[in-house]
């Protein structure tokens, strides 16, 4: 069944905006609908049920992937990795546990994205422009001769390389800096051990899964209300807006009559 599940992999191809719109267009499942599908998959290996569970949760992967935009990695790749985590979660989801799939899946989605970030991202990019690369390699040669620079040596090197003293100092600092591992795996529990960014970048003040689920239910409820309103005559629409939808100036029943 694992190979068949992998065949359901959904990766953004072509226009990313079109993919996101398509992901958001899939209807969300009620708790009862989700449980029924999860039982079909868990007890009977129903791949159509698995597909529906995956498609209805793609929007959550997009939400989560957006939180990693600051690492300079392609958004489409982050979403694709998150989708792999979603499929793993769907395959392992037990409907008898008593939690919603999104709460179970969020950890798998983030784990796959974390792995991708660790494989492809370097916190300190020493030289990113052509000028910085030229300064970097020339500065390495000079430092091998002189070691650490005092202010006079910085100014001398700047003149030799045709750059400012500030450029030399900045590049020297970059060359001296060490990368910090995103997710420390050391067994050292001492206070001197630096905290991994993966720990202090997490927002533990709220339940992420509950938040995005609530946001999407509110959006769907608003869309359903709009559709229902469009089926009413103009007088009925005005009454509903005046009685219940106008937060600043709600009318009484007598006023709307």
TrEMBL record:
Q: Where in the cell is it found?
A: Cytoplasm
Positions of short motif Interaction with polymerase core subunit RpoC: 77-80
User: Could you name the domain of life of the organism this protein comes from?
Assistant: Bacteria
Q: Where does the record place the RNA polymerase sigma-70 domain? A: 77-90
Molecular function terms from GO? DNA binding; sigma factor activity
State the PROSITE patterns in the record: SIGMA70_1
Q: Name one Pfam family in it.
A: Sigma70_r2
Cellular component, GO annotation: cytoplasm
Q: Which UniProt keywords apply?
A: Cytoplasm, DNA-binding, Sigma factor, Stress response, Transcription, Transcription regulation
Which GO BP terms sit in this record?
DNA-templated transcription initiation; response to heat
Q: Where is this region: Sigma-70 factor domain-2?
A: 53-122
Q: What this chain does, per the record? A: Sigma factors are initiation factors that promote the attachment of RNA polymerase to specific initiation sites and are then released. This sigma factor is involved in regulation of expression of heat shock genes.
Hey, which family's this protein in?
Answer: Belongs to the sigma-70 factor family. RpoH subfamily.
* Record text on subunit structure and interactions: Interacts with the RNA polymerase core enzyme.
NCBIfam families in the record, alphabetically?
PRK06596.1, rpoH_proteo, sigma70-ECF
In its UniProt entry, what is this protein called? RNA polymerase sigma factor RpoH
Q: Which organism is it from?
A: Escherichia coli
